[in-house]
Design brief:
binds ligand FNR, five-stranded parallel β-sheet, about 190 residues, alpha/beta, 5 helices, Rossmann fold, globular
């Protein structure tokens, strides 16, 4: 079998007990053999500033290099005020510059939003899509993944406890693997 696809996972929450991070860890455990998922941290990236980019900090260049090497990117994010949490938007901005050197261009992507609320981060999910369209990230369209009531779906160890959620996320990852094959082959 060929090597598994290298998928960077960006988690939109920085808090230690984040449900989104637990969900991301659950996804790592659920991933099919075709995918190798790895969380890449975004909390240390300083706020994007074009002046600073004349001599970019090591955290920015390391982040850009890591994403550039990856076959695909999976966003796992909560919703803040019906939109994308600032650290995640900042990571997207950092990766998009300098002009003409975006690490996102053509890289297949997927979005899983999550919330303790019933709407499952729909607003964040779709605001994120708006940026990803501009950045030319081909985004998996179906299945869509809005994980509502996420706080009730995890077990004590932080894994995914709910069997139906596990089944849905396994299907999502299988569809994502096919999507990467279709859109990102290299
Ligand atoms: C929230 N939360 C929230 N939830 C939601 O469903 N829609 C929203 O618009 C918001 N807005 C929002 C703004 C801010 C600043 C915070 C801190 C929180 C609640 C949010 O879903 C909840 O805190 C999650 O637990 C955050 O995700 P993590 O950190 O558990 O991954």
């Amino acid at each position: 079998m060929s090597n598994p696809r290298d998928v960077v996972v960006l988690v939109g929450s920085l808090r230690k007990e984040s449900y989104s991070r637990k969900l991301a860890k659950g996804l790592i455990a659920l991933a099919p053999a075709q995918l190798k998922l790895e969380i890449v941290e975004i909390g240390e990236l300083q706020l994007y500033n074009q002046d600073v980019d004349e001599n970019p900090p090591q955290t920015w260049t390391a982040f850009r290099d890591r994403v550039r090497r990856a076959d695909a990117v999976l966003f796992v994010t909560p919703e803040y005020n019906r939109s994308v949490p600032a650290p995640l938007k900042n990571a997207i901005d950092v990766g998009s510059r300098p002009y003409g050197k975006s690490v996102w261009d053509g890289k297949p992507g997927g979005i899983i939003s999550a919330s303790p609320g019933a709407v499952g981060g729909f607003g964040a999910n779709h605001h994120l899509r708006q940026s990803l369209v501009f950045l030319n990230i081909p985004i998996l369209q179906q299945p869509e993944a809005y994980i509502g009531g996420v706080d009730k779906l995890l077990d004590e160890q932080g894994g995914i406890a709910n069997e139906s959620t596990k089944g849905f996320l396994s299907k999502y990852l299988t569809a994502f693997a096919s999507w990467i094959d279709k859109t990102g082959a290299r």
